[in-house]
Amino acid sequence: MKRLLVVLGAVCFVVLLLGAMFDLAPASVQLHAAVAANLPASGVEHPVTAVLLNFRGYDTLLEIAVLLLAMIVILATGIDTAADVRPSVNPVLQALAKLAAPLMIMVAVYLLWAGAFRPGGAFQAGAVLAAAAVLLHLVELLPGWQSPSTRLRLGLAGGFLVFLAVGAGSLMRGALLEYPPEHAGRLILLVESGLTVSLGLILAGLFLLLSRDDGDGP
Amino acid sequence: MTGELLFASVGVILFALGVAGVLLIGHLLRRVLAFNVMGSGAFLVLVGLAQRNGIADPVPQAMVLTGIVVAVAATALALALVRRLYVLTGKLELSQDDDE
Amino acid sequence: MSLEFIFDLLLALAMVWSAWRSLSASRLDRAIVMFIVFGLLMALAWARLSAPDIGLAEAAIGAGLTGALLLDAYGALKRREA
Questions:
Q1: Complex ipTM, two decimals?
Q2: Domain total in chain B
Q3: Domain boundaries in chain A?
Q4: Is the pLDDT of residue B2 over 70?
Q5: Residue numbers of the domain that contains B45
Q6: Contacts of B37 in chain C (CB under 8 A)
């Protein structure tokens, strides 16, 4: 009965929404034109990066806050500390991972730099960093986290704190996250570097913290 | 019909599929999968509908980029809770007692 | 119908099919692998929607990291069951 109701509801939803979508009038606001018009003042040449870190920097600030919050909650739910039993790792895999990890870090730095004028940026760079850490963990070159040290905690929160400091600085000069156009490029690079490190650490931490939750319970 | 509208329609279907999955599937790990399918559908509607005239729009693209990162954080949090629940109760489903 | 639209149509069908399989597969490991396939198809769709930024992020995060997290959770539950 419940099954039938849910399926019927879902089908109705699809039909109604599709009908509404094909009937939609053309948009009255042209956001891409507004972005293109203001791009020279944003400090970067790639429109998506300009939107993420300048025009709608507020979203990105709150996003890194949400990520930090998720990390804190995972730390707070408690992790079992029993030994992790994994089959021994193939030495070929280890050698390959050792070769790949420095290249991945280089790709991350390139993506961070490229974000200013072509597709790329802090998010993708952070994801590649996290992937490198996960790869090293899977071949047992990087141990799982027992509990993060003070330095690691600083790294986790660093991106958010740098972003917040830049936001507070801009608040004193006028509006929140409204960069002066002549310094915008440098400020965005500073914020993006902090974001890359923190995003990489948080995304890697989500995996490294969870993956050693293999114990017998408290 | 343009490619953009086609992908927006796919997004609608995926969203409905995900909602039905979240409501009907009891296994919590599968529910996390359904929740992710739902999110992907919403992202496709957001970008596909905004670009239905064929011009790339950086604003919804930036929001979806933010959304993807938040979605993976939510997934990791959900998995942490599922694993914790399994450690404590040995079950992979929520109990039905609260529904009555 | 142009060649590009036919490609879009095939991609759309593959996405819906893989999403359906990832929710309905009887074995959980297959469901997770189908979800990773779905994530990679999503990355292709973002490329078709001229959003390479999202495509990059989706391939690395949506398919890669989420897949790793899910497979790891599956493995841990399996080990605990045994």
A1: 0.90
A2: 1
A3: 2-80+89-210
A4: yes
A5: 3-92
A6: 19, 22-23, 35, 38
